[in-house]
Amino acid sequence: xxxLTIKTAKQQLLSNLKQIGLTDGEALSEANWIINDITDxxxxxxxxxxxxxxxxVESERLAEIVEKRQQRMxxxxxxxxxxxxxxxLTVAPGVFIPRSxxxxxxxxxxxxxxxxxxxxxxxIGVGSGAISISLLTELSHAQVTALDxxxxxxxxxxxxxxxxxxxxxxxxTLGNWQDNLPTDLDAIVSNPPYIPRSKKGSLAPEVxxxxxxxxxxxxxxxxxxxxxxxxxxxxxxxxxxGQIVLEFGDDQETALAQLFEESGWRQVQIHKDMNGLPRxxxxxxxxxSA
Length: 290
Known about the structure:
This protein is α/β, with parallel strands linked by helices.
């Protein structure tokens, strides 16, 4: 039996997490999550049982997580999973970790697609499968084709789709989106790479040392290379009133809205994420019916 109680384990965790640069709030959030992972106790239950000793298995699991986290490995990789909307997803180094900001993509896609009985959707850059799986979970008759350049991402998305019971409605394609995007789509969704490479030095070690650059950086100096190709290619793959829902980065909303409007896209709108920051652009296919 370990000599650590839940209370002392959490105190040590808080100290360790602050030492690697986390704020008090971030450290507390992670400590609560880690204790929940090793004990299966909610935050309230942790308080009620704070004097309970950790078992040997729990103590060993805690030590393993702490060792990885002190190397600045993202907590989600340390634990092997994350939560996104109403889903639990396996995550692993080499595949981008879904963020809560990206839930805004799903929210607006669901709003646009809610009245389409059997929506046909494509996702560009599937990663762990967070967006596609969330859409398939909420839209019981939808079909999604998801594309990625990463074999690891395709395999992880397959695993997550199986675990969440939607694999029968998900087609996974390894390859570039320009050559493999289906046609006659009701919607295209994506959280593409959009960080300018000039900002690489400002990223946290958890991001730059562990997450794939392919999922992070746009090629042009302003990070908008994906969108410049997208506005030209996507209309050929959408239905007449097909929709797009795309995530973008900080301070990119004005340039993006201008790009889509000048390219003839209709109903261009910018939406804010849960933190009140511009994060998602929606628009309707510029190709009008004859």
